[in-house]
Amino acid sequence: METFAFALSVTGPIFLTLLIGYGLARAGLLSESFVDDASRLVFLITLPVLLFIKIFNAESALADEWPLLLAATLGTLVSLPLAWLMARPLEYGDRSAFIQGAFRGNLGIIGLAWAAKAYGNTGLAQAALLMAVVTMIYNLAAVSLFAAYSQSQAFHWRRLLKDIAQNPLIIAIVMALLARQLELVFPAMLLQTGDYLASITLPLALLCIGASLDFSLLRRSSLSAFGASAFKLLIVPVVLLAFGWLLDLPAQSMGVLFLMAAAPTATVSFIMARAMGGNSQLAANIVALSTLLSVVTASVGLALLNSVV
């Protein structure tokens, strides 16, 4: 019972914050323009600052986290062909949205928030490194999928590499690692300012995600949306945890690995589906459904994990 209470204390506040954002938007207190501006602020400024500060101040070194990063990489690479096989019975035009929804998690906000709530700054630093590695795989796989299943878009390596190189989150993580390697010392006032900016990141981002959700889409959810959500919330965590077990990860690393793997489908999957000619309706259904169900699957999964590790 105590393990489930701990798990619910991790996932519950995050989910309630999403619901508050959803309610405020429906009440007209969070306008669409505010959500757009706040989301841009988080992505370009506050979230990169948070990642930089937490990685720069982390006690563990990057070399200490290679088993965690390897487990996440191998698990993600194995999950991709499994999702592709599961999508084979679907209509050709639906496969890209299904596959991306089945593997692409909301690591940057919900995954980080869960890790920070469960394990504090050390867990957040581990999650940030994991996110940097896995996000590159996500981008490569997502663009390739939509290029393969779309008649209107083509895959371009140059564009993909440019997107990765210009991603503010990846830039912040790389800069933090370089700063640690060079043993740079920053003025306390500058670090305190960074803490102020970082502190607003997760609450603001969660409110924006909640405001962007449209649970009315659940009425039009199909078996495909349920299948992709089940794969994302159940199969992906099991696959990644299997690699974590094989690599003999310590308890906290296993917890961080699970929480990042159990995060619901990222909202960017809907944006990419719409921009690249995929089934955006299916993508939106997967985002809404996986977000709603993740509070249950993540809570139960974390409780089970804590009882055996």
From TrEMBL:
Chain ranges passing through the membrane: 6-25, 37-56, 68-85, 128-149, 169-190, 196-218, 230-247, 253-273, 282-305
Gene Ontology BP, a term: transmembrane transport
Recorded topology in the membrane: Multi-pass membrane protein
PANTHER family: AUXIN EFFLUX CARRIER FAMILY PROTEIN
Family: Belongs to the auxin efflux carrier (TC 2.A.69) family.
InterPro entries in the cross-refs: Mem_transp_PIN-like, Na+/solute_symporter_sf
Descriptive protein name: Membrane transport protein
GO CC, alphabetical: plasma membrane
Compartments it resides in: Cell membrane
Keywords annotated in UniProt: Cell membrane, Membrane, Transmembrane, Transmembrane helix, Transport
Entry keyword annotation includes Transport: yes
Subcellular location, principal: membrane
Keyword Transmembrane: yes
